[in-house]
Design a protein that fits this description.
By secondary structure, this protein is mainly α. It has 13 helices and seven strands. The strands form three sheets. It has a three-stranded antiparallel β-sheet with strand order 1-2-3, with helices on one face.
């Protein structure tokens, strides 16, 4: 770097890399705060990144591993170091922002990187690295395209499960997520899956048997209700939870509150199970030693009250009342 501080040319590639992995909206990403990172409460090696979405009244957050040099936490730490010399010279409203730049004009103004500079340097980034699309033309890359492109790729990785992709995108409804991933490549993949299932169904009707039996992975059958608290786990055999082993069904049912594999469908049955879990946590507060309850269970109740339950609309709460739920495993 030719300067002792960040300039747009060096800062924008970091913004692109962070946006590509976080799926944050462009404006939310631009306004990322310097204190946006916190260590995960329960999972070692994971960092939670939090940002505010302009059209939403709640914060968005995702957890990331630090296992790679270009992981989001490591990228943010580099930007913090590059922009630290600029903080004392920034106007008060911008001093808590991550993406500070020197305007390099005659007045040498330090400010939050403006939109027009972001757009201009993204185009320069494309030209500098000769990024091309499938047709061989310069890629039409913008900060706004990172989110739908990333979610489309994630949707494919998640087996085109709209509820899992919705949780990843921090959307309030699956309808919003569907608008992001409703693309020709996704529709073609879905049509292939549907066509394959239809062909097998016709074969069953005609012959009474399949020539090629459908192989169902054990993860697919156990993932639906692999947890007692109402979550759906995207990989209950992944061994992510504390004390769990790869290949074995996870037994750490209270770990779902902070597990990156947890998916929370907006469904009355799921809400009923979550409300039962909340009641069990509150009941345990009276039975356990106060210090133990505060250490192990208070953070989970806080996540449930502040982050999870507010996502459910009021009409689902009405539908969840009176639902019978299975007996929860004992907390202690």
């Amino acid at each position: 770097m030719r300067y002792l501080h960040a300039i747009p040319e060096t800062l924008i590639p970091y913004m692109i890399a962070i946006g590509a992995q976080s799926y944050a909206n462009p404006e939310a990403l631009r306004h990322l705060r310097r204190d946006c990172m916190n260590e995960h409460l329960l999972l070692d090696g994971r960092t939670v990144v939090t940002w505010s979405k302009g059209r939403s009244n709640r914060q968005q957050r995702r957890s990331f591993l630090r296992d790679k040099s270009l992981s989001v936490p490591n990228l943010i730490e580099r930007v913090l170091a590059m922009t630290a010399p600029l903080v004392p010279h920034a106007p008060a409203p911008d001093r808590d922002r991550l993406f500070l730049v020197d305007s390099m004009n005659n007045r040498r103004t330090v400010l939050l990187v403006p939109n027009y500079l972001v757009e201009a340097h993204v185009r320069k980034f494309v030209r500098r690295h000769s990024l091309l699309n499938g047709a061989g033309s310069p890629m039409a890359l913008t900060m706004a395209t990172l989110r739908p492109s990333g979610l489309t790729l994630a949707h494919e990785t998640l087996g085109y499960d709209i509820l899992k992709t919705q949780a990843l995108a921090n959307h309030a409804t699956p309808d919003t997520t569907q608008r992001y991933v409703d693309r020709p490549v996704v529709r073609r993949a879905q049509e292939r899956v549907i066509g394959s299932l239809q062909a097998r169904f016709v074969e069953l009707v005609r012959t009474g048997s399949y020539s090629e039996p459908i192989e169902i992975e054990p993860q697919a059958t156990d993932a639906e209700h692999a947890t007692a608290a109402g979550f759906i786990c995207s990989d209950p055999f992944g061994g992510v939870g504390d004390g769990q082993k790869v290949g074995r069904l996870c037994t750490a049912w209270l770990g779902c509150f902070t597990c990156p594999n947890a998916v929370i469908p907006l469904d009355p049955d799921v809400l009923a199970r979550l409300l039962s879990t909340r009641a069990a946590l509150i009941e345990a507060r009276a039975a356990l030693a106060p210090d133990r309850w505060r250490l192990l269970y208070a953070p989970k109740l806080e996540i449930l009250d502040n982050d999870i339950l507010p996502r459910f609309p009021s009409e689902l709460r009405v539908a969840a009342l009176g639902k019978q739920t299975p007996v929860l495993p004992p907390i202690e």
